[in-house]
Amino acid sequence: MSSNVVKAASPLASAVTGAMELSVAQWLLVVCLVAFPLLYEWSVSFKYFCKMAFYNGWILTLAILAIPICAVRGRNVENMKVLQFMLLHIKYLYGIKIEVRGWENFNIKEPYVVVSNHQSSLDLLGMMEILPSRCVPIAKRELMYAGTAGLACWLAGVIFINRKKTDDAISVMTEAAETMLKEDVRVWVFPEGTRNHSGSLLPFKRGAFHLAVKAQVPVIPVVMSSYKDFYCKKERKFTTGKCTVRILPGVHTKGLSSDDVPELADRVRGMMLEAFSQMSSERPGKGPGGVH
Ligand SMILES: CCCCCCCCCCCCCCCC(=O)SCCNC(=O)CCNC(=O)[C@H](O)C(C)(C)COP(=O)(O)OP(=O)(O)OC[C@H]1O[C@@H](n2cnc3c(N)ncnc32)[C@H](O)[C@@H]1OP(=O)(O)O
Ligand SMILES: CCCCCCCC/C=C\CCCCCCCC(=O)OC[C@@H](O)COP(=O)(O)O
């Protein structure tokens, strides 16, 4: 009888003994493996932080793969295709559906300047969905130091500007106007100059429009609909959702001079704001007039 009890208790006893033999690191691992999925499901903020951390971490990892491929060509705008190809699947990982309207407005052979609204680093998804060939973004200089992502951007010809030194930024953009024409390159600018998730558009910086006027090329506005239904940094919300990207008709700059830049910038901003408001009022369950 007593030997039976010992036998019956032995699996439990060995489990307890085994558990006691776990090192602190192993215990931590077990706790994390149990706590992580629970927290992920229960806490909206935790989910938000995980998703954002994975987003950045995944891009840094993909860049490790992209760097040697891009390095074969050296610094070259064609490398932007490599980055685009590598980033296109991310929308599926996050369950973000992207609908594109106005493709025909990109049917221009000559170089042009794309200007688009800038809500978050998630804009990268919409940008990669429609990025025209030989098109490079203008980015803040700090991005060049974002580890592997910075190096990948540099290899793909991303134009870096120092926003704190207007004169330097202007001279980089003046050089870009020459490069656009000489090397048949398109440039993508976020004219708000910073991320803006206010549900409207910030006043526009003038650089993109000076660039287009200097090169005498069209400006093509692109508007990404509000992410509010699925993403909000303030509320730490990040769910699945849908985004519409609208490519608007190009605005010509032939014959314009730098004196016309303020009016051009205002006109383009007006077009974008109208499209943004329209798209916001189309959001399911939302009435018109959601944008101020
Ligand atoms: C697989 C692995 C993947 C790895 C990963 C891949 C990622 C691959 C995608 C990356 C994607 C990145 C995306 C980043 C996104 C951002 O980094 S957004 C931040 C950077 N972008 C910008 O700042 C937008 C461009 N900025 C501008 O255009 C600004 O005008 C400037 C040039 C910086 C100057 O800024 P400012 O002094 O604050 O503003 P502003 O009032 O516009 O200008 C001052 C005066 O200069 C004049 N001016 C401005 N520009 C010019 C000019 N070009 N010529 C003559 N006069 C000018 C203005 O007219 C104004 O004069 P007034 O009209 O007052 O007389
Ligand atoms: C060893 C160094 C490690 C650095 C780690 C950096 C982490 C960054 C990781 C991945 C980079 C993802 C690239 C996404 C590009 C999105 C560009 C973007 O959204 O930039 C913000 C800029 O438009 C405006 O900046 P502010 O709103 O003025 O601020």
**Order of strands across the biggest sheet?**
1-9-6-2-5-3-4
Bound molecules: Palmitoyl-CoA, [(2R)-2-oxidanyl-3-phosphonooxy-propyl] (Z)-octadec-9-enoate
Q: Kindly name the structural category.
A: alpha/beta
CATH fold name of the largest domain, please? Glycerol-3-phosphate (1)-acyltransferase
Please give the CATH class of the largest domain. Alpha Beta
CATH architecture of the largest domain: 3-Layer(aba) Sandwich
Helix/strand order: HHHHHEEHEHEHEHEEEEH
- Percent helix among the residues? 40-55%
Describe the structure.
This protein has two domains: 1-42; 44-290, Glycerol-3-phosphate (1)-acyltransferase. Helices cover 50% and strands 14% of the residues. The longest helix is centred in the first third of the chain and has 30 residues, at 44-73. The strands form two sheets. It has a seven-stranded mixed sheet, with helices on both faces. It has a two-stranded antiparallel sheet with strand order 7-8. Strand 7 (231-232) and strand 8 (237-238) form a beta hairpin. It has helices at 2-21, 24-42, 44-73, 79-87, 90-93, 123-130, 147-155, 166-183, 207-215, 261-281; strands spanning 96-101, 113-116, 135-140, 159-161, 186-189, 219-224, 231-232, 237-238, 241-247. It is of the alpha/beta class and 292 residues long. The termini are far apart. Palmitoyl-CoA binds next to helix 3, helix 4, strand 3, helix 7 and helix 8. It holds the Pfam family Acyltransferase.
Name the descriptors.
single chain, 292 residues, alpha/beta, Glycerol-3-phosphate (1)-acyltransferase, 14% strand, elongated, disordered C terminus, binds Palmitoyl-CoA, binds [(2R)-2-oxidanyl-3-phosphonooxy-propyl] (Z)-octadec-9-enoate
